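Proteins fold reproducibly. Look at a sample protein:
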Amino acid sequence: MKIPVARKIRRILFLQLPCLDNEIGRHTENMELAGFYLLHSLVRTGEAGGLEFRFLERKEELLDDGHILHLLLDWQPDVICCTLYLWNIERTLHILKRFKVAEPTVRIVAGGPEVCIHHPFLFRSLVPDVVVSGEGEGVFPHILRALRRHETTDLACVAWKKDHRYRWGESVLPALSLQESLPPPHHPGWVPDADGTAYVEAGRGCPMSCTYCRYAHQRKGMTFLPPQELTKRIRVLRDRGAREIRFVDPTLNAHPFFSRILGSLAGLNKTGPIRFFAEVRAETLLPEQIDILASAGFKEVEVGVQSRDPKVLRLIHRPANHSLLEENLSRMVSEGIEVTLDLMYGLPGQRFEDVAGSLEWAKDLAVRNIQCLQTLLLPGTELRKNRKRWGMAADSLPPYGVRSTDSLSWNEIRDIEELIHEISPADCMTSRFTGHRLSDLFEEKVVIHIDRRKDPAFLPGTSSRRAILFRGDDLFAAKSEVCKIMSEAVAAEPHMLWQFVLNPEREFPLDLLESMIAQLHAFPSHWIDRSASVAGWNRIASRRILVLLRQDFRYSTSWIKAVESLLEDHFY
């Protein structure tokens, strides 16, 4: 089938926007493996000839939407391949919609974990021209070939837009082996990041079929790298400066040659120590495997338990042998392995007593870290499809968090979040909203002198995390102007993280803060504002108000406490 004639394809951009958070000093992780694999698929099939390819550089990933849009306009890609996750889908579609207005002949190909046939808003956006569900390495060469010929494919996992609708194909391609999908071990693209961390995929697919996850439903069967091939890749990464290697497999010990892999890694670590991290299924580990884990370099592992209630585990299709699980967890802890243990709340049939009891059980095990995660109704999962059966109420936008079920009320979920916070304080909470020094201030700080502002339409800055410092003789008198600037900022960049910081020369009435807070609550929520306790406590994490006290002025203790209390009530 013919499609509307577009520009000749010369340039392809791979776009994967990072997950934004408020933590200062932490390296933002953004594994662009998908684009790397797709580019290799074109090289492998001979479709890369005569084309230019581009990824955003590290410093470019940290730009705000407006500056990323300018980058796209300057480079003029003919095809944009975007990888969509729950943390970047809204922002990616927002930027690409603006780009398409300026460049209507560009072709946009969307893939990633967010893509599924019944997605709640992806297809209504009409932004992508082509949508891919599942693994893309086998189908992307076919898509590019079709785009070059102004045709479409007839593949069951690919949908093409025509007349404001998307049509899926019917043909099924045989799945590639993992070794075929990955670039070869000595490819120059295999390098550690700035922190010395590298990522390796030993197997693809999952041995379980949990109802809250799509992994096992997207791929039928599993594929693995041979042990010698995996060892070769790790040796290359070590020689290129990797100090830590993280396996991205959902269950590393599902590999049929897991014991042999451990032996090879132990041998590698004799000539130069590397730290490894992996997710494992604890109850299926053998005693001899646990004995060698530490010497093989696994200083930390993550174990998914989710629930201690056998009924709940049956409902989510996740069987477990609790006696073996507990025995192996204790053995790993005694071997000095740092265990991160994952629990969940909001699962089908789950009650408050199960979650609270699971938390106490995990505390008694003395594992390094306990994560109790909110159940998410991810698009395309069995759990989302059957949510009415369990009375699940959840957000319609990312991260799709479950707010209540027929066995867990909203208040009980709030109580669970309080318990979690007591055991393991949440990430990225603001340590202090008021003070002479604020440790959570973003690196980019734009100072606005209210008394001297000449161009009300111009708000400087480039990054996706920005602090605006308001200064002036009487900030309370400038309340309307302060709120107007805030409104302009969020309206111009709704998907970035903002800090609005008052730097007062004197104490001001709290009415100023209340007006600013009301202004921010009027805006649509950011995805991190819908996360777990942020939304449950009706707080805002994406656009915060802080007060930076001046060193040359004395403020009353009662006023400082009142300001801190008010801001704590509204911001995360």
